[in-house]
Amino acid sequence: MNRGNEFMASTEDRIRTLLAENLEVDGKPLPQPVDFSMGLTDVGVSSMDVVAFAKVIAQEFDVEFTPEICAGLDTLNDLVKCLEGQMS
Known about the structure:
By secondary structure, the protein is mainly alpha-helical. It has a single domain (about 10-85), classed as ACP-like (Non-ribosomal Peptide Synthetase Peptidyl Carrier Protein, Chain A, Orthogonal Bundle), CATH 1.10.1200. Helices cover about 50% and strands about 5% of the residues. The chain has 4 helices and 2 strands. The chain has helices spanning about 10-20, 45-60, 65-70, 75-85, and strands spanning about 25, 30. The two termini are about 15 Å apart. The model is unreliable at about 1-5 (pLDDT under 50).
């Protein structure tokens, strides 16, 4: 990946793609567009799926999420800020 490349998707765009590819609510895709001011459990994603999604995010962005970090992420906006902080 070429960080800083103008063609590279933003962190938020990458998360949107991962959400669409990896999460469902009651067997249906997450409603789009996803509201980044909300948490995943707020839109009906199970806590087990949130944990699995954290692993997907960690792998995609090559970061480590401790339980303490995850506990501090209340919204998807918090996740974006956390990832951008770890990647800078």
